[in-house]
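Let us begin with a simple case.
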Amino acid sequence: MPGHSASVVDREPAGARSWVTLRWGSAEIRAEASSDFRIPRNHSVGVAINTERLHVFDAASGARLPWIALPPERQHGYK
């Protein structure tokens, strides 16, 4: 998904990787990055989503939803 960006909210080192919280439009997403990820908060980064590893959760209940459950207009062109 080239051409998309998000702002760094936080970074949590976790051994060989880091978990990075990003603000993407009105959504907050959590992404896996390498352990040497050092982009400061509020800086913009490019975003690529591997839909094979994407997990979607219901905002109200926290329940994991199947990716297919998102209506086409909310999938942002990912299949």
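The second case is a distinct protein. As before, the sequence precedes its structure tokens.
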Amino acid sequence: MIMGFLRWNKALEERNGYGLTKAQTAHWQRVLRGVMYGFAAHEQAGGFSHEAVDENESYRIAIQCVVDGLHRAGEEQHG
């Protein structure tokens, strides 16, 4: 998970073709860190133990939501 964060954080810092402003990039870095940290903290606290659902799939969906939002933000920036 940490390596995934470092890779995404670096991509966001470079704005990776999304055309985001510096402020938007900072917001998206916060969103990404919040999702990743929240997921890890919830998992560590046993918060996923009450459902027989694959935690990795839940994490994939959470990250996909961030990616989709990031793409939309880039599209809105460019009209």
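DSSP finds three helices and no strands in the chain. The chain has a mean pLDDT of 81.
Keep these points in mind for the review questions at the end of the chapter.
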